[in-house]
Amino acid sequence: MNSIEKIRNDFPILGKKLNGKSLVYFDNGATTQKPNVVIDAISNYYKDYNSNIHRGVHQLSQLATQKYEDARSLVQQFVNAKQREEIIFTRGTTDSINLVAFSYGRKNLKAGDEVIITAMEHHSNIVPWQMVCEEKGAVLKIAPINIDGDLILEDLYDMLSERTKIVSLIHVSNTLGTINPVREIIHKAHENNAVVLLDAAQSIQHMPIDVIGLDCDFLTFSGHKIYGPTGTGVLFGKKALLDEMDPIQGGGDMIKEVTFSKTTYNELPHKFEAGTPNIVGVIGMAEAINYVNQLGFDFIHQQETLLLEKATSALSSIDRLKIIGNSQQKSSVVSFVIDGIHPFDIGTLLDQLGIAIRTGHHCTQPLMDFYQIPGTARASFAFYNLEKEVDLLYEGLKKSVKMLS
Ligand code: PLP
Predict the structure, then answer these.
(1) Which ligand 1 atom is at minimum distance from the Cα of 230?
(2) 201: Cβ below 6 Å to ligand 1?
(3) Using CA of residue 238, residue 239, residue 241, residue 245, what is the dihedral sign?
């Protein structure tokens, strides 16, 4: 049995007071808080074995290398990849998507080819494709959604054709919470010989991911959204695809041999990890994954579902408040607008009560255009949040509506 209070003690920041009020942290979609095991792993690296990895003969370097490469094996198991070489460490989801767009995309797209994304993508899964499509004369197509925030699957499937080379989509929407039926979408894309990239930035921390079961070609996520350090991330790619791809950054570690006339590239995964990587970050991310593994996704799902249901029902009862994103398949995110009140003002007033939510377009401006709103207020929950914190949000919102009306 997991006790929430015991779990909360693992996260020192959760005991913080802001303006004399206990911190209520509901901005987990933007970044998650870090448990002591992660903080300690970072501190221990610098205290005990700080050194550069790969090719060092001394003991510190060997220990750091082992921890860094153990982290790769852990991520491999965590997402159920066939081989550890399929796990590339990056700076985060954005970095991983850019790597695929500018390596795989640049090599494989030609004029007239099509890339499909969806109307609910984060800017990180829009802009790299716009850039590479423009460069190659390819066409970027947008699969539409309905007002509840669900993909209109028939329209997406109608878009697939022999011209479709890449489908790149979000697994769970950071703004709407929608969980997309990705297994079915991947299957349909493959029937049309398209490769599929799954942006798992908002699913990796909430549900088990199985890249073999899903059969996705690429998968991306960020360490900081799964209780690990910022500046860390992962690109999973099927080995056959990664083998054919060229590096987009040159430098140390990614080479086999360098002469002034020619350079040959290192094997996977090092081919895509130029320069000294975020060694301490990767080691910290591994601790975060261990922590999540120990808690287990059953527990995480149970706790987050409780919070989502309670918040949805409480917030729906507030006058003039409208929830944006009403899919039947939702993760623990509640985005909302209140008629006549700017989301920024709601966020500012809640902040004075110690409640941290996010306001704005959440890096999904085209989605805001679809709903014809400037932005939303968004509360996003993690397993360490409490039901009584949802009560505080509800009370805080009622107070804010009264004050701002
Ligand atoms: N994709 C989604 C769905 C996200 O929610 C985010 C971050 O909010 C990103 C991509 C970008 O992640 P990062 O800024 O860690 O690269």
Answers:
(1) 15
(2) yes
(3) positive
Q: What's the pTM value of the predicted model, to 2 decimals?
A: 0.98
Among protein residues, the one whose CA lies closest to atom 8 of ligand 1? 30
- Which residues share a beta bridge with 220? 199, 235
Residues 83-118: tens digit of each pLDDT: 999 999 999 999 999 999 999 999 999 999 999 999
Low-confidence ranges of the chain (pLDDT < 70): 1-2
Measured between alpha carbons, how far is residue 156 from residues 119, 143, 177 in Å?
11, 5, 19
- Residue of minimum CA distance from atom 6 in ligand 1: 201
pLDDT of residue 269: 97
The structure tokens listed for 267 are 């094997």
pLDDT of residue 2: 57
**Residue holding tokens 């992962």?**
234
DSSP string, 109-170: --TT-EEEEETT--GGGTHHHHHHHHHHT-EEEEE-B-TTS-B-HHHHHHH-STTEEEEEEE
- Residue 235 in contact with ligand 1 by CB distance below 6 A: no
Does residue 90's CB lie within 6 angstroms of at least one atom of ligand 1? no
pLDDT of res. 25: 98
Among protein residues, the one with the nearest Cα to ligand 1's atom 14 is 94
Which amino acids are annotated catalytic? 363
| 223: nearest Cα among 234, 210, 215 | 234
Residue identifier of the C-alpha nearest atom 4 of ligand 1: 201
Is the CB of 203 within 6 Å of ligand 1?
A: no
Q: What is the pLDDT of residue 56?
A: 83
- Does the beta carbon of 364 sit less than 6 angstroms from any atom of ligand 1? no
Find out whether the beta carbon of 98 lies less than 6 Å from any atom of ligand 1: no
Query: CA-CA distance, 142 to 155, in Å (whole number)?
Result: 10
Which residue has 């020619």 as its token pair? 262
Contacts of 35 (CB under 8 A, 6+ apart): 10, 11, 227, 287, 288, 291
Distance 256 CA to ligand 1 centre (A): 32
**340 backbone φψ class: left, alpha, beta (φ>0; ψ -120 to 50):** left
**Atom nearest to 225 CA in ligand 1:** 15
Instruction: Output the residue whose Cα is nearest ligand 1's atom 12.
Output: 93
CA 316, CA 302: separation in Å to the nearest integer?
21
Rg (CA), the chain: 22
Strand order in the sheet with 114-118: 87-90, 233-237, 218-222, 195-199, 164-170, 114-118, 139-143
